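Thread title: Can someone regenerate the structure for this chain?

I was given the following input by a collaborator and told the matching structure tokens would be attached. They weren't. Posting the sequence so someone can regenerate them.
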Amino acid sequence: MNTADLAWQAGNYGGLSLRKVDPLLEHGHLDLVIRAAEGRGEWFCAERAAQELCGSGEFGRALKVMEPFVATG
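Best answer:
Regenerated them for you:
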């Protein structure tokens, strides 16, 4: 899966579901998931990326991914 495919899915399905996000993470595409969270405001991407980052002790990066969502309340 690449960014063009992600863009198509978001345009046609209104965002990415966990069914798409989890396999990306399982195949080592954490940076792609983070970019989708930061650049497109994908909630499931942000949530799962933050969980992965916290699991590896990268709390600062996890907070940075979640900041836009925290700011909305």
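The radius of gyration is 12 Å.
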